[in-house]
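Anyone? Bumping this.
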Amino acid sequence: MGQLEGKVAFITGAARGQGRSHALTLAREGADIIAVDICAQADTVPYPMATPDDLAQTVKQVEALDRRIVATQADVRDLAALTAAVDQGVAELGRLDIVLANAGISTPAPTLEMDEAVWDEMIEINLTGQWKTIRAAVPHIISGGRGGSVVITSSLAAIYANPSTAHYSAAKAGLVMLMKVLAKELAPHSIRVNTVHPTTVATDMILNEPTYRLFRPDLAHPTRADFEEAARTLNKLPVAALEPADISNAILYLVSDAGRYVTGITHVVDAGGQL
Amino acid sequence: MGMLEGKTALITGGSRGQGRAHAVTCAREGADVVIVDIADQLGTVPYKMATQADLDETVKLVEAYDKRALAIKADVRSQEQLDAAVAQGIAEFGKLDILIDNAGIWTTAPFWELTDDQWDEMIGVNLTGVWKSAKAVAPHMIERQTGSIVITSSTNGLEAGLNYAHYVAAKHGVIGLMKNIALELAPYGIRCNSINPGAILTPMTDHQGAWDMFAGHPGGTEADMLEGGYSFAALKGTTFMDPQVIADTALYLNSDLAAKVTGVTIPVDAGHLILTGINPNPTR
C-alpha cells in the first residue's frame, strides 16, 4: 500500500530531471499523474531543453508502474494552456490532490551585463510560471474539499548568494513569499504549501558547460570533473551533487501523511550547504 | 520492511509524550531502542514528571513490535550518566545509529521574576542536556562514520513566547547547536537536524498551569486549553496535535529519505509560524 494511494498529482517540468523523478516517486507510492513540460527550447537557455521524446519517456515509466498519466506539452508562461492541461487531467483522472510547481531554467549571467531578455525569461518561467501553475491547478484541490498539498521548487539560491545568479536567485527568493502567502490563504481549506530548496542536483539543467563555467570561472572549458570539484565545496556532506531522488524523497515527505501538519515552511535539501 | 530496519535509536526523555511516540515509531520501523529518562521530579517543574511506570510502559510498547528495548534512568544534566547510558546501549545492541535528543521541560514566569533555579534547570535540561547527549554519542558515530541526530526544538526556537524567556532562549540555542553539530559531523557522513513542534498534547503541556495560561485565569480547564489551541494553528480544524506528528517527521529525518538533509530545522506547527501572533478567526 503506497503512501499516496488514490491521489492525483500535477507536475510541471515533468519530462526529465527532477520533474520526472517526482512523477515516478509519486506514482510508485500510488498516485496518478498530470504532467506538463514545454518540450521546446526557450530563447535564452544555453543548454538543450526537454523534448517530446523525454515527456513520452516519463509517460512510459509512469505507466510501467501501473499508474495513469495525462501528459501535455505546455509552457508555464501560458496560463490558458496550463489551465487546459490541468482541466483535461482532472476530467480524466477524477480529482486533484497535489501540485508540484517544479519547472525551471538556469541562465547564468553577470547582473550588470545580462540581456533584458535573459532577466525577463527567467522571471516569467521561474517565478510567474509557478504562480500560473498554482493559479491553474489549486482551484481543483479546493473544489475537491479533501485538502491537499502544494510544493514549490525553490533553491538554495534563495538563501545563499552566488555571482551571476541575480535573476535566478530573485525568482527563487520570490517563491518563498509566494509560498507563505498561499499557505496562509489555503490553510482554511486544509491545503498545505511548502518550498523545497535543493543544492546542486545532477540534472541536464546543471550538467552543461555554461553551468560548469559558473562553478569554474577560472577555466575556459571546464569538464564535469572540474565542476564537481567546485560543487563539492558548496556541500558539507561529502557529495558533489545530489540525485533527483533526494529531492523527490523530501517532496514525498511533504505531500504524504507524514507531513500532515507541515505548512508554510522552507525545506532545505542541501547536504549542509547553507551551514 | 521498516524504514529503520536493523538500526538502534537512543531517545532521551523517552518514557512518555513525544519521547514515547519516537520510541514506538522507531520500533514499528524496525529499530531497537534505548530509552533514557530521568523518571524523577525536578525542583522547579510544577507538573508531574515521568515515573518508572511510564518507562516500563514504553518498554512494553516497544516490545509489542518485537523489538528490543533498554530502559535507563539518567539525567541529561549529567555527562557521566549519559556516557554510561550510551556505553550500556552499545554493550547491549552493539551500536547506536540514531539519537533523538528530545528530553525537555517547560516552566513559566515573566523573565524578571524567573528564579536562578528556574533558569538554571531550564538551561541545564533543554540546552546543556541536548549538548551533553549529542556529545555522548558523537565519538561512537564518528568511529562508525554514520549516524543521524534529531534535536527537538520548538516554534519557540524561532519566535518569542510570553513568560518563558528561559525556554525560548534554550530552544533558540539548540538550533545553533544543531547547525554546529551538523557542520562538525558532516565530514564523517553524520547528519543532524531539528524539529520545531507547534502545540503538542503531552504531559508537559497538558496540566493546570497550561490550562490557566490558555484560559487567561486560574481554574482553567483542559477544554479551555484545547479551545485556545485552535487559535495557535492556521490549518483547518487543528488544535493541540498528537505527538505522533513529531515522531513521523523524526522518522523521515532519520531515514534514507533524508540522506542528504542536514543542518535544517523543520517546523511541524500546522502553519503557526505564518500567523501574525495568533489566528483571530480559526477555521473549524
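Late reply, but here is one note on the structure posted above: The mean pLDDT of chain B is 96.
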